[in-house]
Structures are given as structure tokens and as C-alpha cells.
């Protein structure tokens, strides 16, 4: 699957920003491990409009619930219409825990979205500005 070049550059920049400790004054001894998720188009994208709306509402509700539980730190879709659909950063280093959360997302369980998991490091408390 070929990804849009701009998106690949964006992902590289995100990883760079999360791991560029010296220029951001971060202490490498205080690093924490997180799970970074790339949401991609799944194999089942031909749902009827009513079903699609239910899936999307359930997907957004699931994201909200994971955020409220404190397991999900960052979530967002890509603006462009691509095979890559969005990113999630989980406040967990355990990919199995994250997989369980993702599998209970209606967009994933319906086959509308797939995901790829990556473990990353950052200093706790980093945020988008």
C-alpha cells in the first residue's frame, strides 16, 4: 500500500518531535513508553449510510470513553482522504491492552478501519500546542 508522501513526512516529524529530547529540554532518564497507532482503511468500507452513521457515532464515543479513562492521550483524523485515516497515542506500553481497546471500537470490529501499532518513547506531560 503506497502512502501519500506528505503523510509519511508528517509521521516522521511527529516521531522526531516526540523523541527530540535535547532540543526540548527533556531528560532521557524520565522517558515513558507509549503505543502509537496508525488507523488505516479496513477491508469492509461498503456499509449502508445508516450503518455507517452508527459506526461513526460509536467510534467517536469509544474514543471519548478511552480518553476519559485516561488510556488514550491523543487522537485525530487526517484531513486528506487517504488510506491512512488517523492516529492515536495511548497512555500504555502494552500493545495487548491497546489491541483489546481497539477491537472494541465499532469502526475496527466492523472492518471499516484497521490499525498498526508502534511503541514510542516520550517524556510524560508532553502535549500539542
CATH class, please? Alpha Beta
Note the gap between the termini. Answer: 32 Å
Rg, Å, rounded: 15 Å
- What about the largest sheet? 4 strands, antiparallel
Order of helices and strands: HEHEEHHE
Number of helices: 4
Q: What count of domains describes the coordinates?
A: 1
Strand line-up across the major sheet: 2-3-1-4
Number of strands: 4
Query: Pairing-aware structural class of the strands and helices?
Result: alpha+beta
CATH fold call: Alpha-Beta Plaits
CATH architecture: 2-Layer Sandwich
Backbone shape: elongated
CATH superfamily: Dimeric alpha+beta barrel
Strand content: 25-35%
What would the keywords be for this entry?
single chain; 129 residues; alpha+beta; Alpha-Beta Plaits; four-stranded antiparallel beta sheet; 38% helix
How would you describe this protein?
- The protein has helices at residues 5-19, 49-69, 95-103, 106-109; strands at 32-41, 72-77, 84-90, 113-122.
- By secondary structure, it is of the alpha+beta class.
- The protein has a single domain (5-122), classed as Alpha-Beta Plaits (2-Layer Sandwich), CATH 3.30.70.1060.
- The termini are far apart.
What's the gist of this structure?
The protein has 129 residues and is an alpha+beta fold. The chain is built from 4 helices and 4 strands, in the order αβαββααβ.
What topology emerges from the helices and strands here?
Blueprint: H1 5-19, E1 32-41, H2 49-69, E2 72-77, E3 84-90, H3 95-103, H4 106-109, E4 113-122
